Amino acid sequence: MISVKPLRRKDLTRCAELERILFAGDDPWSEAAFESELDWGNRYFGAYSGEQLIGYAGLSLVGRAPDFEGTVNTLGVDPEWQGRGVGTLLLRALLGVADDVNAPVYLEVRTDNAAAIGLYEAHGFHQIGLRRKYYQPSGADAYTMARPARRPAEEASTP
Fold it and tell me: Which domain holds residue 23?
């Protein structure tokens, strides 16, 4: 069984390990980078199989109520667990945070990552731009994608 909960600081070493595996051709985040993200108050979730971290995702919110905007900072899943819905669970956790404050959400994704693009499109994201040579040092391009703000379910159903 997979559980999703706030990322634990004791798992930051594992996050950095997964980054090196997942983003070897680019500039993977270090343990210190993840620690800084948590220190800034950004929302990070971990996906766990028992006690083992198998995926992570982070969201930052900027602005003030009622004008928040969200950015998916990262989403990574252990290659052994890809294709099993872990990314979906993590993305839904992030979107739940954004939906609680009715924030639109933005992200960048490699143009050659069809699985991630499909995941994002299935959750209401659409392409709004192209960033050439966004990922370094590989020089890979990225799509900028956006999902409009959505009210929490309980507010949306209120007349």
Answer: 2-156
Tens digit of pLDDT for each residue in 32-91? 999 999 999 999 999 999 999 999 999 999 999 889 999 999 999 999 999 999 999 999
This prediction's pTM:
0.91
Burial group, residue 79, by CB count within 10 angstroms (0-12, 13-18, 19+): exposed
CATH of the domain at 35: 3.40.630.30
Which residues are known catalytic residues? 108, 120
Q: How many angstroms separate the CA atoms of 154 and 131, rounded? A: 36
Look at the chain and report how many structural domains it folds into: 1
